[in-house]
Write a structure and sequence with these properties.
The chain is an alpha/beta fold. Helix content is 37%, strand content 13%. The chain is built from eight helices and seven strands, in the order ααβαβαββαββαβαα. β2, α4 and β3 form a beta-alpha-beta unit. The longest helix has 17 residues. The two termini are 28 Å apart. 39% of the residues are buried.
Amino acid sequence: MRNEFARTELMLGREAMEKLENARVAVFGVGGVGGYVVEALARSGVGTFDLIDNDTVNVTNINRQIIATQETIGQYKVDAAENRIHSINPQAVVHKYKAFYLPDTADQFDFTQYDYVVDAIDTMTGKLELVCRTKEVGVPIICSMGAGNKLDPTAFRVSDISKTSMDPLARVMRKELRNRGINHCKVVYSQEQPLPVAPDAAEAYLKEQPNPGRRALPGSIAFVPSVVGLIIAGEVIKDLIGLNN
């Protein structure tokens, strides 16, 4: 049993490890949250990944994204994530999609082939479409709510979206899902009020933008999206092997 996942097998057993090895997980968005989801799933022995993201690694990602280093700047995030997966588990199968998930790109994906879907994207339209598609085919999904402008990693909770509070993104998504006849969805959300962006930094950021009407992006820090990603990965693993039943 001396292999990459021997210590995990000591906790979970051989049957659970086989379930993880045979599982196919789609991670939509492999940035701050999604990158850590992929990392933890790869280190837990998940055998097949679908990675969906059209973004490239930017220097501003280095403060919080596990795939972002000086060496990966300019690479597609799905390429950088694939390289990390294969450096951990060369036998893992990786399917990459250099695309942003939106209603007009949704038909590219056959959700029936997935054992689990992770929503780590930023756009509300994309998140809603993901939940609707997975509910249609009965595939489990877990969604990341707002991690931007948060500073307390202990404030994150796993919950049904119907029971969330304090999180503005969850509030809007809860309402929109109800309008679509969906009342339940597993999410990770924060009970911390979002912090305001530092005024001097926001002013400097806006001066650098080619579009003067654009708003400053949310602030973020290394130890918040990483925690969200690891929480999500833990839920995916426990669900796949039946520990949450």
